Amino acid sequence: MGKPSRVLIVGGTGYMGKRMVMASLALGHPTFVLVRPDQVASNIHKAQLVISFKQAGAHLIQGSVDDHESIVNALKQVDVVVSTIAESHILEQLKLIKAIKEVGTIKRFLPSEFGMDVDRMHHVMEPGNLLFEQKRQVRRATEAARIPYTYVSANCFAGYFLAGLAQYGRFIPPTDKVFIYGEGTRIVIWVYEDDAATYALKTVDDPKTVNKTVYIRPPKNILSQREVVEIWEKLCGKVLHKMPISEEDWLAPMEDESTSVQRKVEMAIFYHIFYRGELANFELNQSNQLEAATLYPDVEYTSVERYLSRFA
Ligand SMILES: NC(=O)c1ccc[n+]([C@@H]2O[C@H](COP(=O)([O-])OP(=O)(O)OC[C@H]3O[C@@H](n4cnc5c(N)ncnc54)[C@H](OP(=O)(O)O)[C@@H]3O)[C@@H](O)[C@H]2O)c1
């Protein structure tokens, strides 16, 4: 195997981006972080994060996808681009794609995805489909520009979904009562964000993953909400009061004008995951579908039990 590719992270100071930077460094890639100078100068968290990247060995490149010359300059220094641009700015990646095409030397592009496979989700309930549609636009633009890509479907991030036992808007586990979606038996796939970053970076120099979708399905983490609650009950030594929410009750606020669009988007996504079971209701049997834990059995992923034990 050759030398690890040079990797540029775009969106590096974000929730997922910072994990990509650290995973890239840990896997021995010369790692470059696109830094928007104005943002870093005016934000204490970003400023300190960027310095910590530098101290960990990353190279900082000043620039922005809004500034074509700067992004072209950054792309000329690397082989691989991993984008973790925010959901609110997914279409900014069209500028990145234009620059990648112009430079012509990028061997792999991972667009900002890391959730459900958007090409399987054309039917998402409105207004939840907006984000999926934008991610699909980025996929189609990548393919049209003939840029080698890998799409990473990382399912439910642990911090967002597992930590709160999938309670909407809650990020630590409850110890008294828990809402259960329907029967709570739909199968969900729970993935620790650091593991998602490691798997994503593992793909970038792997010829098997070029122009494929890689699904992260850690075998021990394919569990229903009820199974997750049981694991937590054992860890915390308490039996939680279960409060089932019917599909109708869950969806009722979608009809309410006072519910914000953001909330409706999130509720629609919860609906497809927890009531329809659409993360795990299909097999990976097409030639463009691969599974990360099978590809990279050397990665010691974090089990649901180990993740939740931090809260016990
Ligand atoms: N599967 C899941 O459960 C799950 C959960 C959360 C997110 N995700 C996915 O993960 C991906 C990354 O999400 P995230 O939560 O990490 O994002 P985030 O933290 O909200 O933002 C990521 C970065 O986007 C960049 N950005 C923001 N505004 C920008 C602008 N106007 N122009 C250019 N860059 C801008 C910033 O990077 P810099 O300031 O460093 O340039 C920011 O730190 C998304 O595709 C999201 O859908 C999945």
Automatic annotation (TrEMBL):
GO terms for biological process: lignan biosynthetic process. Residues 5-308 form the NmrA-like domain. GO terms for molecular function: pinoresinol reductase activity. The keyword Oxidoreductase applies. The keyword Chloroplast does not apply. Keywords: NADP, Oxidoreductase. Pfam families: NmrA. Transmembrane segments: none annotated. Belongs to the NmrA-type oxidoreductase family. Isoflavone reductase subfamily. This is Pinoresinol-lariciresinol reductase. It comes from Pinus pinaster. The gene is plr.
